[in-house]
Amino acid sequence: MQGAARLAGMLRDAGGAVVLTGAGISTESGLPDFRSPTGIWATVDPMEYASLSAFRRDPERVWSFYRLRVELLAAARPNRAHLALEKLERRGLVRAVVTQNIDLLHGRAGSRDVVEVHGSIRTSSCRRCARSYRLEDVLERLARSTGAPRCDACDTVLKPDVVFFEEQLPAAAIERAFELAREAPLLLVVGSSLEVYPVAGLPDETLAAGGQLAIVNLGATRYDRAAALVLDAPAGDVLESVLEAL
Ligand code: APR
């Protein structure tokens, strides 16, 4: 795949790219993305099940959606794309991975510097008394009851520590993501439609600072014209070919 060879050359020349991943890097792990024709938002209204106002209105209903998500994500395994990024990091060709994904798969693949800008399923919290609960505790509650997981101390329904629509992103994570993008000689986007801000603004930061942009994504994105390289191909194929070409 000559596109992968070009990308390998760009990674070598950059000497420390920043990678921005979206749901498309996890589809090979059996996790649906959001906006492709078979994506989650094709059948589920995010404002009804993944927004802060929906959670305030009816937390049990939001958990009827998140119960399935948390159980599916927790059971998923990193795929060859996640594993390839870990190898590139180990070889000094990837400085950090900024991910919009909440599935913990980059960390489980062994990547060390991962910036989770939309939070993750690692913990859920009680918004009333601020107690934090590990994924294992939440899964145990979900297995024990058909209802939403509740706080041991005040019986309030827990909220997954993922960013809902209408919710602020974790400040430290998004600040670091913008700093990384500004400093990146190369920003490699893998498996994201680049539709959701502020994360979709990261390529602008890199380009404005004189860095290059490369995109590996099935389907077009609004940044394709500004990218030095666009590979409309499966992330796993491309990243494995990149490793072979290095
Ligand atoms: N290889 C490459 N690209 C892929 C693959 C694959 N194997 N599978 C899917 N894709 C592409 C899809 O075609 C789509 O363009 O990945 C992209 C995923 O885009 P989205 O579904 O919009 O996911 P993402 O960009 O991560 O969404 C951002 O939106 O709903 C919120 O919080 C949610 O973090 C998410 C954010």
Structural summary, described in words:
Helix 6 links the parallel strand 2 (94-99) and strand 3 (114-116). The protein is α/β, with parallel strands linked by helices and 246 residues long. The mean pLDDT is 97. The chain contains 10 helices and 9 strands. The longest helix has 17 residues, at 59-75. The chain is elongated, with a radius of gyration of 18 Å. The protein folds into 2 domains: 1-31 and 78-118 and 169-246, TPP-binding domain (Rossmann fold, 3-Layer(aba) Sandwich), CATH 3.40.50.1220; 32-75 and 120-162, SIR2/SIRT2 'Small Domain' (2-Layer Sandwich). It binds adenosine-5-diphosphoribose. Adenosine-5-diphosphoribose binds next to loops.
Explain briefly what this protein structure is.
The chain has 246 residues and is of the alpha/beta class. It has helices spanning 2-14, 46-49, 52-57, 59-75, 80-90, 105-108, 135-144, 171-183, 202-208, 235-245; strands at residues 17-21, 94-99, 114-116, 119-125, 132-134, 159-162, 186-190, 212-216, 229-231. It folds into two domains: 1-31 and 78-118 and 169-246, Rossmann fold; 32-75 and 120-162, SIR2/SIRT2 'Small Domain'.
Bound molecules: adenosine-5-diphosphoribose
Q: What's the structural domain tally?
A: 2
Order of helices and strands: HEHHHHEHEEEHEHEHEEH
N- and C-termini, Cα separation: 13 Å
Overall spatial form: elongated
**What Rg is obtained from the alpha carbons, in whole angstroms?**
18 Å
Structural class: alpha/beta
What is the level-2 CATH architecture name of the largest domain? 3-Layer(aba) Sandwich
Tell me, rounded to a whole number, the average pLDDT.
97
* Spatial strand arrangement across the major sheet: 3-2-1-7-8-9
**Relative strand content:** 15-25%
Number-wise, the strands total 9
Low-confidence segments: none
Write down the CATH class of the largest domain: Alpha Beta
CATH superfamily of the largest domain: TPP-binding domain
Total helices: the number is 10
